[in-house]
Amino acid sequence: MNPIVELVDNSFIFIVAISVLLLLGVTVAMIYFVFRYSEKNNPKPDQSITGSTTLEILWTVIPLILVLAMFFYGYEGFKEMRNIPPNAMLVKVTGKMWFWHFEYDNKKTSDTLLVLPQGKDVRFELMSADVNHSFYVPAFRVKEDCIPGRTNHMWFHTTNIGEFDIECAEYCGMNHSYMLGKVRVVPEKEYLEWVNRVDTVKKTDSLTAPTGTVPGTVKTDSIKTTQPKVDTTKTTGNKKDTLKVNPKDSLKKNK
Ligand SMILES: [Cu+2]
Fold it and tell me: Measured between alpha carbons, how far is 94 from 111 in angstroms, rounded to an integer?
């Protein structure tokens, strides 16, 4: 199993469990107190309670232990996230308004679709071409900001074959909610075929060539579904901006 997924899930379950226990405890105590100390049952208020050192120590020490335990679980996951395996393969990720651009070791590029081999550690260099974005892959429990002018890092281990969602987790403008993508984890042999295909079709638009080479994916044109052209052209008004956000045009510029 992916170590990050396990650690993040552990800390999440731990915090939720403590929260549920506290909620139940507080609710039960509250309901009990409503009846036990109601005016009806106690016409004359009890003045004898002045304080309790034991209670004060308990309600200070117990929450402190709980909060420290939450921190411990959280930190374990954080450490793993920061501890990038030295021989992890590298993918450069650039957030652009409003799609994801990927560059692999051999300079092959793809947009929106990130293809990865199964059973590998993958390191990501995260950048932005315009505004702040946040690269978020829920299935792998990782999220890291893409900030213009700096490079951030994150990594995960690919375990299961399949397709997993990519989202932008930082509001980045009008089409932020359409800034979706997919991670496709395939067997290593299939990945190598895909990633090396670019050398033979260097001049070919990465939108059409790479996706067509992975078996069973020929029909997926994820760019089309995530980039509603109508929105960008109609509301931006400025011709230069419109050109920038059109994925096909920005691809041309990238060459
Ligand atoms: Cu966004």
Answer: 10
What's the gap in Å between 190 CA and the centre of ligand 1?
A: 31
Compute the distance between CA of residue 6 and CA of residue 39 in angstroms, rounded to an integer.
51
Print the domain residue range for 15. 3-43+50-82
Q: What total number of domains does the chain contain?
A: 2
Q: Tell how far the Cα of 21 is from the centroid of ligand 1, in angstroms.
A: 36
Q: How far is the CA of 17 from the centre of ligand 1 (A)?
A: 31
Q: Quote the ligand 1 centre to 46 CA distance (angstroms).
A: 58
Say if CB 124 and CB 153 are below 8 A apart.
yes
Please write the tens of the pLDDT for every residue from 80-135.
999 999 999 999 999 999 999 999 998 999 999 999 999 999 999 999 999 999 99
Give the type of residue at 193.
E
pTM of the model: 0.70
Same domain, 119 and 224: yes
Q: Do 236 and 192 share a structural domain?
A: yes
* Ligand 1 centroid from CA 178, angstroms: 8
Whole-angstrom distance, CA of residue 191 vs CA of residue 193? 5
Domain of 97, CATH number, reads 2.60.40.420
